[in-house]
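Researcher: Go.
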Amino acid sequence: MFNKLMIKKIFNKIVFLLPLCFCFGKSKAQDTTHRQTIEITSSYKPSLLKTVKINLYASPITPDTSQPRLAYSIPSESLFYTYQPTALKPLALEADTSLKLGDRNQLKAGFGNYTTPYLSGAFSFGDGKHSLGNIYGDYISSRGKIQYQDFSEINVKGTGSIFSKTNETYAGIDFAQHEYYQYGYDHALYAFSKSDLRRSYQDLSANVGFRNIVPNGSGINYDPHLIVHEFSRENQTNETNLIFNLPAEKRFSDKVSVKVALLGNFDSYNIKSTNTSVGNNLFQIAPEFTYSSDQFTFHGGISPTWNNGQLAILPNIYGEAKLSQSILSIQAGWIGRYIPNSFRSLSQENPYMQDPVSWNNTKEMQYYGGIKAAVGNHFNFSAKAAFISYSNMPLFVNDEFVGNTFLLVNESKLSNFQIHGDLNFVSQDKFTVTGAVDLNSYTGLHDNTKAWGLYPLKLTGSLRWHAFEHLLVKADLAAFSGASAQGIGGSVKNLKGGSDLSAGAEYTITKRFGVWLDFDNIFNDKYQFWNNYPVYGFQVMGGILVHF
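Model: Structure:
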């Protein structure tokens, strides 16, 4: 045991805990032709791998030549992304409640080992022509085998749209409350009360927007929207985040268009105990010229961006060409962007982080080239190689005393050579297999000896199989090599790699009633994504699903 003076020093280092290994699924936007129903996804399970802190591979969008979608969707929060990379989500199964039970409302309930109750409900209203509304909520809690390896989460979300003949006005609001405990320490050496380790967080978000849903006579499409986040930790630390995006597109023909967007991200962060206040602002003007034909696509733009008043000119140039009489296409691009960092985003990335005093936004420059191909009607794949440089990359190291919290450290320069590949096989929406691999080589560090918490190798895969009309079978795999960690006293170690296999099934007994069963971490691999924090072992959860 250690003395009271040491306890006091430890308490001064410990601050908060946010959810790491546990997330919840969310209701999805409606398809244009089926706005009368909603699709609900189930909860993320608490032991699965947390996604890597940033998306390190380029995968630019193809030009959207279709007309605006009529269905409701929440505006994206991906500010300062002049392209949209494809996100990998190894956190958990994308829980498919997609078996067609009919009806618009749903209740889902279940129970699992680790004393894990789960309850969710989703409701849809409106005719889909004049109005559309969705309400979704869920609750989950669990108690692990390690002392204080407990958590609970509540999520409530509402979205709505009002349609006129030419426009859609949409809005949404959601609230989440998370309660977790900082269990990542030597329990034989230190003694803490549960109340000392408890951390409770509140996250309130709202958005509103307005967009055209049919082409207008001037050939201009628009979608201005505003997002507000209010994030707090037990009323001791709070942050207000205001995001706006004012995009507009002028189409001159089927092949040529010009886009421009004004984007802003403004943060105000406060720590009451130290009376610390931090402001963080990004503003960008993003013009873009697009040419698209059957054989060739080109996007070109230069984006002036002000990062806390400092001007940077970011390139946004990429294209794709289909080889003549071939299924093969080649891609290349030169992309620059700012990744806005905030107390909210950083703590969601590493929930064991101590309250930071300050941080920087991350600047990314990327050069990439690659290929993609489609073989037949069912199989496609892509591969890319990228040279990426980062300025002001946030990294995390354990505190030097107890080790159950993390300090935010800045890396002013970091280089990465990355290889990314993915493949997909789809058979008439009955059978789907996807897989992806990311290889990263981190070099050129200026301020740190290792790229703390960044993983050199990650593999992901998923399977969805509608075996019969009323049976859905699913499986997901995430595997990764170990990252470097700096622990107590500045010690350095490499975390072991890990793998996480999940599987499950859903079966409809009647039109309105079904059952589900999920298995998570089937290999019982108690890996540590963050140093000192082993995840839950093998999990099983099952229950009922009711539509009405």
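Model: Residues 4-13 form the longest helix (10 residues).
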